Amino acid sequence: MSKTFYIETFGCQMNVHDSEKVIGTLEHEGYAQVHDETAADLILYNTCSIRDKAEQKVFHRLNEYKRMQGEGKKFAVIGCVAQQEGERIFERAPFVSIVAGSASYRNLPTMLERLEAGETRITGLDDRQTDETFDTEFTVRSNPHRGYITIIEGCDKFCAYCVVPYTRGKERSRTSASVLVEARRMADEGHTDIQLLGQNVNSWRDPSGRMSFAELLTEVGNISGIRRVRFTTSHPRDFTRDIVEAIDATPTICDHIHLPVQSGSSSVLHTMSREYTREWYLERMSWIHSAKRDISITSDMIVGFPGETDADFEQTITLLDAVRYDGVFAFKFSPRPNTPAVNMADSISDEVKNERLRILNDRQREIQREHYARHLGHNVEVMVESYNQARGQIVGRSSQNKTVNFTVPIGASEPPIGSYLPIHITRTQPNCLVGEAVAGVDPLQATHQPQPFVVLN
Ligand code: SAH
Ligand code: SF4
Ligand code: F3S
Questions:
Q1: Which residue is closest in CA terms to ligand 3's atom 1?
Q2: 260 CB under 6 A from ligand 1?
Q3: Which ligand is nearest to the CA of 12?
Q4: pTM for the full model?
Q5: Which atom of ligand 2 is nearest to the CA of 199?
Q6: Which listed site, 108, 151, 374, 391, has its alpha carbon 20 to 30 Å from 218?
Q7: Which ligand is nearest to the CA of 47?
Q8: Is the link from the previous residue into 309 a cis peptide, with omega within 30 of 0?
Q9: Rounded CA gap, 392 and 349, in Å?
Q10: Mean pLDDT for the stretch of residues 292-313
């Protein structure tokens, strides 16, 4: 009898990529993936704990799982909530059999053996202090064109609000040689777009001492067949000027930097333990602004951090104006277990947090409306991602990581998913660009193994 599993993933790209590795490991152990949980013998839930809402989703889903008890199903809670809550999950949901954090996934085969032997409380929580990363040859990448490589796991920064150092453990970098071997293999398999991942990707330090982060970007960008290299998330503390120089010198390194600032107020940044000031951050912005290429900049912001005054918040708004971001992800502060900020008085009411979030998003939308106009009348290269049949549009992504909705000239055929082509931008919307494929230019197919024509609804 073949064994089946269903997996659901929440959280960041690192979790998404971890799931790809978990799927590969399970398949190697003889399990087949199904996309309907009612058909699965084993249900895995890869969890996120970054904000309270994300954690609540897990327990809500576990309650739904409960209905399926007694049908012989096994349940595994993995990822950041698993690491954070540990064995308490067994108390809250006694039908769960495996609780495992990301640092222990390489022990999954043993955990599965114990599960099959009938054990009911299996934990993988103990080895966060390992120097190893979860690297497996069995990774199943769901997208044949764009693929992730985790180059650094964990976080040593301990920002006052954040669970990641507790859920993912200390920083561990992979060697440049192992990253490059994986990148070359992906290029051979047909991936043209590689995304290097890390909670703080630019804190990567080559354990073999061979190259800097900027040099690694360049090396990956020089691999034959690779057309785009992205990297996320960068931390301002470790952001060096040679990263901007590498982008300027290497066209395959995407002209986009996600550099979360969190707050525009140096005093809030200090309480957050971000270890930089507004001025320090703005200096890094000036490096990016003076690059030869038009590098898009995006950020994360937190509003309503304990003690944030109106004047502090105003500093965040003026920072938006000074930087002119291409995109901002703004969040209300959410007190998290184990973090220092949970013991600070959560002094800002939800009403004020909502109001600050609204003001920030309104201002940023206005900035984007003005700032995106620079693309009007220009050609922007996209990688084709999907077809939006309902709107009669094709959806692509620019090197700057902007969504571009476009049509093809009358009589021209739709370009294949994964191909690259220039789009003439005719219109902008708050979060995307709109245009038409440049007439007479054939889409550039994925260099190896062109993929079959896929139509998505
Ligand atoms: N390592 C990255 C961020 C990873 S977490 C960095 O340091 O920039 C992704 C984002 O979630 C953070 O940038 C932050 O804006 C947000 N976040 C993290 N903890 C939060 C909390 N307790 N409440 C609200 N937002 C939070
Ligand atoms: Fe969290 Fe700060 Fe680490 Fe980012 S740098 S993952 S915000 S502790
Ligand atoms: Fe969430 Fe863990 Fe990522 S808390 S954001 S899944 S590192």
A1: 48
A2: yes
A3: 3
A4: 0.93
A5: 6
A6: 374
A7: 3
A8: no
A9: 44
A10: 97
**Averaged confidence pLDDT in the chain:** 92
Domain boundaries, the chain: 3-124, 146-371, 376-437
Cis peptide bond prior to 233, omega within 30° of 0: yes
- pLDDT of 9-31, one tens digit each? 999 999 999 999 999 999 999 99
Q: What is the distance between the alpha carbons of residues 273 and 279, in angstroms, rounded to a whole number?
A: 15
Nearest CA to ligand 1 atom 21: 334
Longest dimension (CA), the chain: 65
- As its CATH architecture, domain 3-124 has 3-Layer(aba) Sandwich (3.40)
8-state DSSP, 341 = G
C-alpha 278/C-alpha 319 separation (Å) is 8
- The residue nearest atom 7 of ligand 3, judged by CA position, is 164
**Rounded to whole angstroms, how far apart are CA atoms 331 and 329?**
7
Residue 148 Cβ inside 6 Å of ligand 1? The answer reads no
Between CA 74 and CA 364 the distance in angstroms is 45
Is the minimum distance from the CB of 48 to ligand 1 under 6 angstroms? no
Verify whether ligand 3 is closer than 6 Å to residue 49 (CB atom): yes
Answer yes or no: are the C-beta atoms of 22 and 6 closer than 8 Å.
no
- Read off the tokens for 4: 């089946």
Query: CA–CA distance from 248 to each of 87, 289, 397 (Å)?
Result: 49, 12, 20
* Rounded distance between C-alpha atoms, residue 31 and residue 228, angstroms: 33
Question: Residue 190: phi, psi to the nearest 5?
Answer: 110, 0
Q: Please report the pLDDT score of residue 454 as a whole number.
A: 31
Whether the Cβ atoms of residue 164 and residue 155 lie closer than 8 Å to each other? yes
Residues 6+ apart with CB under 8 A from 102: 14, 15, 18, 78, 79, 80, 83, 134, 153, 167, 168
**pLDDT value of residue 392:** 87
Task: Give the separation between CA 332 and CA 18, rounded to whole angstroms.
Answer: 27
Q: Name residue 246's amino acid.
A: A
Q: Can you tell me the distance from the alpha carbon of 89 to that of 100, in angstroms, rounded to the nearest whole number? A: 11
Question: DSSP strand E in 266-345: where?
Answer: 296-303, 327-332
DSSP state, 338?
Answer: T
48 CB under 6 A from ligand 3? yes
146-371 has which fold?
A: pyruvate-formate lyase- activating enzyme (3.80.30)
Q: What is the pLDDT of residue 131?
A: 61
CA of 32 to the centre of ligand 3 (A): 26
| Amino acid letter, residue 24 | G
Residue 334 token pair:
């959410």
| Distance separating alpha carbons of residues 113 and 116, to the nearest angstrom | 5
How many Å lie between the centroid of ligand 1 and the Cα of residue 375? Answer: 30
* CATH class of the region 376-437: mainly beta
